[in-house]
Every structure is written in C-alpha cells, then in structure tokens.
Design brief:
Elements (H helix, E strand, L loop, with lengths): L12 E6 L7 H11 L2 E6 L2 H7 L7 H19 L3 E3 L4 H15 L8 E3 L6 E3 L7 H10 L17 H15 L3 H8 L34 H8 L1
Parallel strand pairs: 1-2, 3-5
Antiparallel strand pairs: 4-5
Helix pairs in contact: 4-6, 4-7
C-alpha cells in the first residue's frame, strides 16, 4: 500500500486505432480520454484494406491484427515510444495457446513482455495475470465507457470463439482449470516435450552406472557374460 500514491515516472500516450469499421463510435472514446488528460492519437482506416484483400465470408481477424500491429509500431517509432502496452489478459493468453496448438501445430501463446521481430519495440501486457471477469467487474465499477465492436467476434465460425466456449465449459466442470493452464506456461520442462531445438535428444546418453558397493569385484562382468 505504501506505493499507492507514488507518481509513475513515465508518460502515457493512448493510441486509439479507428479502423473505419462500420458503426465504431470513435467520439465516445475520444470524449472519455479527453477527461483523463491522456494524449490521444487516432490512426484511421485499415478496414478498407481488409475488405479489399479478404474474400467475402472469410475471417478477417488475422490480417486485421497484423495491420493494427503495424500501425502501432509506426506510431511508436514516430513518437519515440519505448514500450507498447497491449490489453491482453490471462484468458486471451490461454485462448491463444490453444489456437496455436489446434490450428497451427505450435506450442505458443503470448508473453507478458516481448521484443518484436524487428528488435525495435518492446511490447508489454500489464493485464497478463488478470482474469477477464475481474477486468469486466472493475470496468463496470469504474463506469468506463464500453464500446461494442460489430466486427470482431461477430463473424461466424471464429476459431477464438470456439476456444473460448471450450474453456468456459471446462471451467464450469473444473473450476480453476484456466488458471492452471496459464500456470503451466510458467513451468516448462523442455526435456519432457519433443522440440529438438530446446533439448538435445540426439546427444542424450545414459550415464555410466557405478557398481554397487556390496557386490564383489568383477560381479557385474560375470553377470553380463552369462546373459
């Protein structure tokens, strides 16, 4: 509690990516952020790119996500930002783990801190250890403005929605399972998996077994010759 009144030694720049999606109420978020005194940047229109590239009826999430990420990196470079904070929470991370397993054949999720591929930006996820339902309750208690998105999560056959429902069903039958899955990401045993880049299975050999002290000299060799 002694840290509760310590002023943070960093500046915050809130970036609202208005992707020009139909029905997105940009003014609602801008009005709220203006009351907080946080600087705001609005980067517009990636939606038209997605519509042009993705065939009608196909899931837009993959390309949309990459375009958002690229826009954030560009703004971070322009503004001299040293950290990019994203809002992914614990449930997002667990869902991503299963998405990569089921649809990409990779054991991969989202880390709380990451150096991006270019090596120029550090991405942090301050909510990585928070549950979605706790964040939802906090947002309601603080009366944060809620902005519905009529595109993300509204398309049919979205893999993430399938995974989310699977985890909800598991949680009903086995409370605490989602948290346990997340904890497993913090306790990896490479020798118990099958990734040859993480563990040298080829060079693995049995150590020499010392002769038990209670056996007479040469007893092991005699046993071996009889077998």
């Amino acid at each position: 509690m002694r840290f509760a009144h310590v002023r943070p030694s960093f500046l915050t720049l809130a970036v609202n990516l208005d992707q020009n999606q139909p029905g997105f109420p940009t003014d609602k978020l801008e009005t709220y952020l203006a009351t907080t005194g946080i600087d705001t940047i609005v980067s517009r229109d990636t939606y038209s790119v997605v519509k042009r590239v993705i065939p009608e009826g196909k899931t837009m999430c993959g390309l949309c996500s990459r375009l958002r990420r690229g826009a954030l990196y560009d703004i971070a470079s322009q503004e001299g930002v040293t950290k990019i904070a994203l809002g992914h929470h614990l449930d997002d991370i667990v869902e991503t783990l299963f998405l990569n397993m089921f649809y990409g054949a990779k054991l991969k999720a989202m880390p709380p801190k990451l150096l991006n591929d270019s090596g120029k930006h550090i991405v942090i996820r301050p909510l990585a250890y928070c549950r979605e339902h706790d964040i939802s309750r906090y947002a309601q208690a603080q009366q944060f403005p809620l902005i519905p998105c009529d595109l993300c999560g509204s398309q049919s056959n979205l893999e993430r929605q399938v995974i989310k429902q699977m985890l909800l069903n598991w949680e009903k039958d086995h409370p605490g399972r989602t948290a346990n899955i997340f904890r497993s990401l913090t306790s990896i045993a490479p020798s118990q998996l099958a990734d040859r880049e993480l563990f040298d299975f080829v060079g693995l050999g049995a150590a020499a077994i010392p002769q038990p002290q209670w056996l007479p000299e040469g007893a092991n060799q005699q046993r071996a010759s009889k077998c």
